[in-house]
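ok trying this again, last paste got cut off
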Amino acid sequence: MTRGRQLRPGEVGSITVTKLPNGQYRADTRVGTAEGASKRVRALAETAGRARARVIANADRAAIVAKRSSPGQPKTIDDVVSQRLTRLHNEGSLKPQTVSEYERAIGPLLREHGTTSVHDLTPSHLSSLLSSMYAGKPDSWRQALVVMRGALADAVQAGVVDRNVARELRAPRKKRKPVRALSEKHVAQMIDALRTPIIDPVSNAVLGREDNLFSDAATLQFLTGARVGEICALRWIDVALQEESVVITFRATVISRQGPARIQEEPKTAASNRSLRLKNPVAIALLARRLRDQTHEELVFPGDKGGVLSPHTVQARWRKARVAFGSEVSWITPHIARRSLVTTRAEQGWTFEDIARAVGHSDPGTSRRIYTKYRLFTDECGVIV
């Protein structure tokens, strides 16, 4: 616990968890009070995780009450949202990537309207604020609303406000564009575009790398339907090359929202942890060649200077390739590879449950909604775990 330093009103100190002789776990922390002192907060549970979660919840309630009672500290949107995000960080119930996305989404609202008192919020007022900040951005609108619902729910539980006005709002429906999938011609064109060096029209110098890194990564993505971050995080220990097949396990992803790209040892969702067996000779030859000529002992697709390849770098290379190659590939993005593979599997008679397992969707309905009529490959690929 924090000692030797006075806690500010509403500030939560560090948490300690102790196993008691009776087998239970006790979690302790301190919270700064409105009077400038500190208050001990304690919770008991049968596991360390539950004890920690309970003391965090108790401390959050005490912190909100302290801030509310502290003179000169009005309860604002910034106050309740900051408390909510801190709680999510401490609990660890969500992946850091998800919390970072929430922080990014709610950022514009806090910068423009963070000083607005939560006591002044009504459903129409909050809806007006969100609409003004996220016009034309339904995904950010929805994520900001999720954060506000959680923050105001905490405020209601702590007695700061009597009503969670965010519960009465619904995010605008996202207009879905017609889903397009790739033909074999489209795939070949995009691979050629990624393999062709980008030439500066003024100096005739080659811009970027001249090897097959990006075209190889794209080829494997087309064959597996993997996300860009999953391809960037692929390691040789996740690849089992055999004579007539290759087994690829996707168990991690690369995130680069804050700071340099780094591998997150958990996939995007629990369903994303999967293994695929490919009998496609293109995939076998590609991985065999990369293994023979490998430039990194761990990563299949390393970035510059032996670091982790960032998904942003991959997407930037695709944009340059589209510009250089012309209108024939101007609409192709890395994510279309996943939609195309779902299309192919559905036309081959796969159930959407099997398709969802193959591409890492937690809900078969997600795979079903992106089904289109185009074909892609006819290779043999199946989920083995």
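PB: full thing came through this time. The domain at 1-73 is CATH 3.30.160 (Double Stranded RNA Binding Domain).
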